[in-house]
Amino acid sequence: MFSSIILITALAVLLPTLTTAAPSASPSTAPSSGTAFAVTAAQLTTIAPKSASCPANPQFPNECQTAAAAAPAINWGFTEYGITTAGEAAGLVATMALESGEFEYAIHHFPSPVAGQGTRNMQGPKFNVEYAQSIPGLKANLPTDPAAVLALVLPLLGMD
Q: String of b and e for 56-89 (b: at least 16 CB within 10 Å)?
């Protein structure tokens, strides 16, 4: 039920505005076609109200990001990976908001930890390896331990 509410909210908030949003700042490699969408902190807060601020005493304090901190990283990803349709953007934002507890978590802790599972969409270790392999600076010396791979990709989310 909660996931449906987040997806419907993401679609309602983002679909009308994403088609006219300005492109985000250009990363080193721009998408090959189309213009990437930009999502604002205000839109993220509407979709994921808890992301307006981090809890006063979060269980995992180094993982929480506010909507204001998450929006630039999301926009960079939209540009870097060529997210050019409103449906793609809304689906990705809804997945991230749901899986990260509205941007409070970046590592899979519940119901039981899975080594190497994390990022804002809580992707599995196999996908974190695939993601790391797509980054030239990480690809050459990629560790075999899933938790070590996750530790390499988390700083890309602003997670140290």
A: eeeeeeebbbbbebbbebbbbbbbbebbbebebb
Whether the predicted pLDDT of 27 surpasses 80: no
First to last CA, the chain: 33
The residue ranges of every structural domain in the chain are 1-105, 106-160
Task: Collapse the DSSP code of 53 into the 3-class scheme (helix H, G, I; strand E, B; otherwise coil) and give the result.
Answer: coil
Q: How far apart are CA 129 and CA 125, in angstroms?
A: 6
For 29-57, the pLDDT digits (tens) are 333 446 778 899 999 999 999 999 999 99
Is residue 53 a contact partner of residue 66, using CB atoms and an 8 Å limit?
yes
Give the separation between CA 123 and CA 131, rounded to whole angstroms: 10
- On whether the CB atoms of residues 53 and 102 are closer than 8 A, the answer is no
Instruction: Tell whether omega for the bond before 111 is within 30 degrees of 0, i.e. cis.
Output: yes
